[in-house]
Amino acid sequence: MAPSTSSAVTLNINGEKYPLSVDHRTTLLDALRERLDLTGTKKGCDQGQCGACTVLVDGRRAVSCLQLAVAADGREITTIEGMAEGGRLHPVQQAFLDLDGFQCGYCTPGQICSAAAVIEEHAAGWPSAVTGDLRPEAEPPPLTPEEIRERMSGNLCRCGAYVSIVQAVARAAGERARTAETEEEAA
Ligand code: FES
Ligand code: FES
């Protein structure tokens, strides 16, 4: 008997379970767009270089064009369609809107997913390639424009909306920090 070239998986996307039979070669990006009509996630280069297809897998950034759908079985996937909560835009989405962090919008879903994860990575104290002091006892670096540009460098924007993107990420990060402080004080 010839070996099977497809498998049954359950993709857990934005809190919903999607049982699916997928060819083993199907990328997560193609499963989202072609099989599940979740077309918010964009295909740019299809080879891991532009970031347009960025989604969150178990809370961490992943370029979905380089991830096989079978490898995403059972993981928690968040796409741009799942960023808003309870009818309210995610603070990163709101900041992109308010500060014009886009032009044509093609790279925007990937930018927003990436930015949401960048803010959490930074809040968790993860350094970047431009973080100066890497000693374990060092204070976490402030999320300067230089830090944001480095951390978002995997997301390209053909329209060159970078200035506004950096401002939007900074604003959303500031909001997150203030919310965390308020929650700490109230606890
Ligand atoms: S489409 Fe995935 S990185 Fe460009
Ligand atoms: S807004 Fe057009 S590619 Fe970024």
What is this entry, summarized?
With 187 residues, the chain is of the alpha+beta class. 34% of the residues lie in helices and 14% in strands.
Structure overview:
- This is (2Fe-2S)-binding protein.
- Pfam families: Fer2, Fer2_2.
- This protein has 187 residues and is α+β, with helices and mostly antiparallel strands.
- It folds into two domains: 6-82, Roll (Ubiquitin-like (UB roll)); 91-186, DNA polymerase, domain 1 (Orthogonal Bundle), CATH 1.10.150.120.
- The protein has five helices and five strands, in the order ββαβββαααα.
- Strands 2-1-5-3-4 form a five-stranded mixed β-sheet, with helices on one face.
- A hairpin with a 2-residue loop joins strand 3 and strand 4.
- The radius of gyration is 18 Å and the shape is globular.
- The termini are far apart.
- The model has no long low-confidence stretch (mean pLDDT 95).
- Residues 102-108, 157-159, 161 line the site of one FE2/S2 (inorganic) cluster (FES).
- One FE2/S2 (inorganic) cluster (FES) binds at residues 102-108, 157-159, 161.
